[in-house]
Structure formats: C-alpha cells, structure tokens
Design goal:
The complex is a heterodimer.
Chain A (H helix, E strand, L loop, with lengths): L6 H6 L11 H6 L5 H29 L6 H28 L6 H42 L16 H46 L2
Helix pairs in contact in A: 3-4, 4-5, 5-6
Chain B lengths: L2 H14 L1 H11 L3 H18 L9 H15 L23 H18 L4 H11 L4 H8 L3 H19 L7
Chain lengths: 209, 170
C-alpha cells in the first residue's frame, strides 16, 4: 500500500486524545505553558523580587547609620534602574517572538534571531554587572576602611605604588569576571542553547534541497 | 462586536476544525499528557492570534501555521518517560471487518513510521495526507514547492522502508 492510499484513512480519522473532551472555552481560560510564556512569567517574578528586595535595601541604606552608607543605596538604585531598562528590552524581544501566525520557516528564522539577541543581552548584562559592582564596593571600602587596612595591596600607599594596585585590581576583576562569565555561559547553555540549536537544525533542514 | 461574541465565533470555527489540532498532537506527541498539553497550548495560541486574523488566508491554513509553529518551534520538550500509547484506530465505518483489521494495522504502522521522521518531515507528510496542494504547503511552511516535492519523494521512500510497504508492481 502506498502513502497516497492512506490519505482517506487519515482524513477520516477524527479520534481525539484523552482530555480532548474538555470544553474549548475552558481551555481558553487556562494560562499558556509555552516556554515563551514561562520566560515572561519568570521575568515578571524577577521584576517583583527586584522591587521588593532592592526597594527594602535602598530604603535601609538611606536610613540606617544616619545615611553614612547612602552611596550603597544610590548604587543599588542605579542597578535597579538598569534592571528596569533590561526588563523592558527583554519584554519587547519576547513580544516580538510571539508571532505564531507566520509561515513556519519565517517564524523559525525570527525566533532564532530574537532568541539569540535575548541570550546576548542576558549574557552581557550578567557579565558587565560583576566588574561594575566590584569597582563600586572597592571604592566604598576604600572610603571607609583605608585607614584600618594599611599595606593592603588593593589600595595605594607608600609600600604599594599605583601600578601595583592597578595590576592587582585588574587581576582580581579579570579572575572574578572570567568565573562569572563561565557560569553565565553554562547557565545560558543549560537554558537556551539546546533549543536554539534545535531550531537551527530544523531551519537548516528546511533550506536543504 | 463584544468579547463574548468574538469568543463564540472563535470557538465555533475552532470546533469545526479541531480535528486538525488533534492530528498535529498525534504526530508530535507520544503520550496522552503531552498531547493534552500541546492541544491546550495550540488553542491558547490560536485565541491570542485570533484578533489579528483578517482572512487573508484560509482559516485552516492559518490554523495549520499556528499549530505547527507551536508544535515545532514552541520550545516543547518531550518528556523522557515516554509511555507507549495504543496506535490510533481507524474509523469503524471504513470497510468490512476483515479488511478493517488489515487497514487498522497499516494505519497504526503508518503512525509509528511518521513518528520516526524529523519534525519538518512530519509536518510535510501530515499536510500531504491532508491532501493540501504544494501551493498551500508552501504557504504554511514557507518552503518552496520544488524543495517540498524533493523532500516529499524522500519521505515516501523513507516511509516505505519504515512501514515495509510493498511498492506497486512488486
């Protein structure tokens, strides 16, 4: 029997899987479980957590110790603002990805491009935050502790000329940034790379003659 | 038009074509839970896209695009603990008892074989079995017709081997 001969059987097969008897209107009321929706929901949870945790911490640093550590509050406010920009860009990207009514090939191309931009943004934001935070807290430490840590290689003194200090800082930042970069890579790979590769392989198959 | 009217119209049209979604679920999922999840996801995606449906293409074409996009590129992961499900039965009204059993066997073999194909191949063979023209298939998949014909020939060859269907004249 040839495939063509099975067409009739195929077209007449209207068996429904278990659970299909659910009313369609009930299905509409349920939330989407697509990975895209899950990413969006996680992002909103992240936003909620940032508002609560950062909000409380910022207030704390502005009020506690008579505001002596308010610079930490300002720094956290700056990071929170960066997060809002990052959140907005991510949501826009995710909205751009959600266009399932296009042709399958175009949708795949679009999803790959957008997902790669999303991952790049995630990677850059996660990596840049580390040296920025180190430098900020180093400055803070310097302002508040320079008199109680004489001879510390991380701060200039008679024993430690500026070039030595700069070298030490460069080394420290490079090591920590490298470690965080590796961790980010591993995490992104775990979250998205397998899927992006899968989409790419389907697209490649579509383009092959 | 009120939201309720919109929803009613959508549900009516969906109900007329829901067999199409079930077939996509059968082809892309192995166990009942996955099928149910995919069915729900496709319905949700259709509903979300419904306000933008202008009727530029046929309703079934539009539905196929969304259903296949959701199944293929919807970042779905098959559960590792796959459960073998009974092959789909053919409608009882087809043929008498003796050849119904034979056809049922062929039909279940076909489903099993289709599941051995790649995601794209499954989409192509499904549209082919639905008797879609190459023009419509191009409109749904975005792959040009010549390429689709080449792929279809390869798929037929693959399925022949998988189902061990005797070729005509042999």
């Amino acid at each position: 029997m040839e495939l063509d001969e099975l067409k009739d059987l195929w077209q007449q097969n209207t068996q429904h899987p278990p659970g299909a008897e659910l009313r369609l209107s009930e299905l509409l009321a349920r939330k989407s479980n697509s990975p895209l929706s899950t990413i969006k929901r996680n992002l909103n949870w992240e936003l909620g957590a940032i508002i609560i945790l950062y909000g409380t911490s910022i207030l704390f640093y502005f009020i506690a110790w008579n505001g002596k550590l308010e610079s930490v509050g300002w720094f956290m406010l700056f990071i929170a603002l960066l997060f809002f920009v990052y959140y907005y860009m991510k949501i826009r990207l995710l909205d751009k990805m959600a266009n399932p009514a296009g042709r399958v090939k175009q949708t795949l191309q679009h999803q790959i491009t957008t997902l790669e931009s999303f991952v790049r943004m995630y990677f850059i934001a996660g990596t840049v935050l580390i040296p920025v935070s180190i430098l900020f807290f180093a400055r803070l430490y310097y302002v508040h502790s320079r008199y109680i840590t004489p001879g510390n290689i991380l701060f200039p003194s008679d024993e430690n000329p500026l070039w030595k200090v700069l070298l030490a800082w460069t080394f420290l930042i490079a090591v920590i940034t490298y470690l965080s970069l590796m961790m980010n890579k591993w995490y992104i790979n775990k979250l998205y790379s397998r899927h992006i590769n899968k989409l790419k392989s389907i697209l490649k198959e579509m383009e092959e003659e | 038009m009120t939201t309720n009217d919109t929803q009613t119209e959508f549900l009516q049209r969906l109900d007329e074509h829901k067999g199409l979604i079930h077939k996509v679920c059968h082809v892309y999922c192995w166990n009942a839970k996955d099928k149910e999840d995919l069915f729900q996801e496709i319905v949700v995606q259709l509903w979300r896209a419904w306000p933008a449906f202008r009727g530029d293409s046929k309703f079934s074409t539009w539905m196929y695009r969304i259903a296949l996009n959701t199944a293929i590129s919807g970042l779905r992961r098959q559960k590792n603990n796959m459960v073998f499900v009974e092959p789909d039965k053919i409608p009882s009204e087809i043929g008498d008892d003796s050849d119904a059993a034979e056809k049922e066997e062929q039909f279940s073999q076909m489903y099993e074989a289709i599941r051995e194909l790649s995601e794209l191949e499954r989409a192509i063979v499904m549209l082919y079995l639905e008797d879609k023209s190459y023009d419509e298939m191009e409109d749904i998949l975005g792959v040009n017709q010549n390429n689709l014909r080449v792929k279809m020939n390869r798929i037929k060859e693959k399925l022949r081997k998988l189902i061990k269907m005797p070729q005509h004249g042999t």
